[in-house]
Design a protein that fits this description.
Part of the RNA polymerase complex. The mean pLDDT is 91. The chain has 13 helices and 36 strands. With 612 residues, the chain is an alpha+beta fold.
């Protein structure tokens, strides 16, 4: 066994500038502290960072770009350099942030210099060993996580999920939405600012672009309709506008130029046009071929009438005369969609051609299958809509908007959700906004005091009565206010069904995807399931009858695919020229496989036998 000797640190400190060796120094540690002091007195740029590695006896001076740096308050001998006198001067607008950086009160550290620092979260924790103090403890989080209330009470995966879902929430994404033509946009009818919010939320002034509503939430099971993350919602709350949004979708078309000098034309197509869709499809178009605003349109209705020149310059008509025929290439609503034409914009595209944008508006009322989420990664799908008279209610006749399953809390360790419920209730009763900032927010004790003063139980539990029977529910139920967001996974945008429809040109199998009116995939595992059940006729129906069944002629002599000679009206084998041909039902994909095998110079033969 070979013993490895630990490399002894050199006597002299190696100095690195942006990773390049520039020399040595007898005492790197003292040099690092002197350089830092010079940076604080503005003799060195405040963008320079100094990192001393004691194990390897190396001093790294970093000035390169691309480093992520964070501001900290400098601490000396256990005392913050940001003294009460300086704070008074800041409040009087005598000093600003840049002054503090120049005075050496605040300095920016990068990831490497942070290794040499000992940071305190709050001033009360300072000891003589500390080198820096956080400007604000919630700065540990980024912008999105900083907006979430009580993140320090939740497990980290839930915070990650809450951040992801905050980006999917529907609210007011921009205040000038009326003048914009975004491809797809959602605007909430009655957005609210949360009752429990953070300092970062207030700093960003996010209440101007709110993306949710405060709901009265009861934590209890409800006849099994909120199992496995489902949520029971008060139908009457939805009728009053809870989480209601308007969806705006923009369709656009342009008069394109073609190489032969020809051009598309936006107009009302006439019956002479090739591919004319019938009068019904064009019923909402004005004389200029563009739809009228506030028209109620449904799937496949034309929004902008457009004709294109023929693909070939001259086309021979039925009677043999040479003529140019226009093609129909109108812009129409996608199948399965409906709405009202909100507005129409006629302008010029980048190439100078006429461009028309049509914005269609539709109201999306929450329904079973839509997704809601709190700011703690607790997402759920609406499982049942219950009229208000059938919902449980408190002695003060408060009816919850949402009934959430209590099983969603303990295993996910989202204590922040419970704290927000309590805080939201206290805020609603006290008529004030609560602070849920990380490490510095309002405490449980403060909420309990407000609830006590208003005659409620400290723990937020209440006796509820069953709306169906009128009897008192035996268990006390935790009820309060939580900020819930509606996510853009709307069931109406995902719903898809098909009986017959388009097929692919190559395989003759149904197309794929909702956008192309595709079929639903019946995969290998589904097939295995039917084999297990012995449902052979159902397999045949799914994989053949409803997919790519075709009848091919097969030569009984040589086993190759035969063809029908339309000129002589006879079936013939192209290989052996024989006429002993039989029709066989096969999948078109199998016929395609035979063709691909032939392309490899392998001759596949189909040997036929009688069924009997």
């Amino acid at each position: 066994m070979v013993k490895r000797r630990r490399r002894k640190a050199p006597d002299k400190t190696t100095i690195f500038l942006n990773g390049r060796i520039v020399g040595n120094h007898p005492d790197g540690k003292s040099l690092a502290s002197r350089l830092r002091e010079r940076r604080r007195t503005n003799e060195l740029s405040n963008q320079v960072n100094i990192y001393y590695n004691q194990k390897l006896n190396e001093l790294h001076i970093l000035t390169d770009k691309g480093r992520v740096r964070r501001p900290y308050i400098v601490v000396e001998n256990g005392k913050s350099r940001l003294t009460p006198e300086i704070l008074v001067r800041i409040k009087n607008n005598e000093l600003n942030w840049n002054h503090l950086v120049k005075m050496g009160i605040i300095e920016y550290l990068d990831a490497q210099e942070e290794e040499n620092s000992f940071v305190a979260i709050s001033e009360s924790e300072l000891t003589p060993d500390h080198t820096h103090l956080e400007v604000d403890p919630s700065n540990i989080f980024g912008v999105v996580a900083g907006v979430l209330p009580y993140p320090e009470h939740n497990s980290s995966p839930r915070i990650t999920m809450a951040c992801a879902m905050a980006k999917q929430s529907l609210g007011i994404y921009a205040t000038n939405f009326g003048a914009r033509y975004d491809t797809r946009a959602y605007i909430m009818y009655y957005p609210q600012q949360p009752l429990v919010q953070t300092s970062i939320y207030r700093s960003l002034n996010l209440k101007e672009k709110a993306a949710g509503q405060n709901c009265v939430v009861a934590l209890t099971s409800y006849h099994g309709y909120n199992m496995a993350d489902a949520i029971v919602v008060n139908r009457s709350s939805i009728d009053r506008g809870l989480h209601r949004v308007a969806m705006f979708k923009t369709y656009e078309t342009e008069e394109r130029m073609y190489p032969g000098g020809q051009k598309d034309k936006i107009e009302l197509p006439t019956p002479e046009v090739v591919g004319y869709r019938g009068e019904e499809s064009y019923r909402y178009l004005a004389e200029d071929g563009i739809v009228m605003p506030e028209s109620e349109v449904n799937g496949k209705d034309v929004l902008v009438g457009k004709t294109s020149p023929p693909r070939f310059l001259e086309e021979i008509s039925v009677f043999g005369a040479v003529e140019e025929k226009k093609r129909e290439s109108s812009l129409s609503l996608k199948s399965g969609e409906k709405g009202k034409v909100d507005s129409v914009m006629i302008t010029e595209g980048p190439s100078g051609n006429r461009l028309v944008k049509v914005r269609v508006r539709s109201v999306k009322v929450p329904e079973i299958g839509d997704k809601l989420a709190s700011r703690h990664g607790q997402k759920g799908v609406i499982g049942l809509l219950v009229p208000q008279e059938d919902m449980p209610f408190t002695k003060n006749a408060v009816v919850p908007d949402l009934v959430v399953n209590p099983h969603a809390i303990p295993s996910r360790m989202t204590a922040g959700h419970l704290l927000e419920t309590l805080g939201g209730k206290a805020g609603a009763l006290g008529g004030m906004l609560m602070d849920g900032t990380a490490f510095a927010g309002s405490t449980e004790e403060q909420f309990q005091e407000i609830l006590k003063q208003n005659g409620f139980q400290e723990n937020g539990e209440e006796i509820l009565y069953d709306g169906l029977t009128g009897k008192q529910i035996k268990a006390k139920i935790f009820i309060g206010n939580v900020y819930y967001q509606r996510l853009h996974h709307l069931v109406s945008n995902k719903m898809h069904v098909r009986s017959r429809g388009p097929v692919q040109l190559l395989t003759h199998q149904p197309t794929e995807g909702r956008a192309r009116e595709g079929g639903l995939r019946f995969g290998e595992m589904e097939r295995d399931c039917l084999i297990g059940y012995g449902a052979s006729m159902l397999i045949r129906e799914r994989l053949l009858e409803e997919s790519d069944k075709t009848v091919q002629l097969v030569c009984t002599d040589c086993g190759s695919i035969a063809t029908h000679d339309y000129a002589r009206n006879r079936d013939i084998c192209p290989i052996c020229q024989g006429e002993n041909v039989e029709p066989v039902e096969i999948s078109y994909a199998f016929k395609l496989l035979l063709d691909e095998i032939k392309s490899l110079y392998i001759f596949p033969r189909i040997i036929l036998k009688d069924k009997g």
